Task: inverse folding
């Protein structure tokens, strides 16, 4: 389940990230329709590509946590933006379904890719009273 959902998340974010960075016409029209400025596509595209890289790369447990969180922020924000513009249930549900895929990828990732796994544990701190 992890490999499939992670591959789907990587494809979704790498593809949409590239489309944002290239200012693809359909993406630019969507962003304009949703009320976002053109420069936001460059910012969003950069973060989407970095997120796709982070969840697909070995190690990087902390970066993965941030990437998964960012992906969920992006997708729920996309759904909220679509709902605010009354774009209809299908256009609202699509990012939410992708969010479920991302959440399943996060939940099913192997222990070696999680914070707190033996590979990434930090030495415990001793508190002084």
Result:
């Amino acid at each position: 389940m992890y490999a499939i959902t992670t591959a789907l998340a990587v494809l979704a974010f790498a593809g949409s990230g590239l489309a944002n960075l290239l200012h693809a016409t359909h993406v630019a029209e969507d962003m304009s329709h949703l009320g976002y400025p053109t420069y936001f596509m460059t910012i969003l595209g950069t973060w989407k590509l970095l997120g796709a890289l982070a969840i697909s790369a070995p190690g990087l447990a902390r970066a993965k946590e941030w990437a998964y969180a960012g992906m969920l922020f992006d997708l729920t924000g996309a759904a909220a933006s679509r709902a605010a513009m009354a774009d209809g249930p299908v256009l609202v549900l699509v990012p939410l379904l992708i969010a479920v895929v991302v959440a399943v990828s996060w939940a099913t990732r192997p222990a070696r890719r999680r914070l707190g796994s033996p590979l990434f544990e930090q030495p415990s701190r001793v508190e002084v009273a």
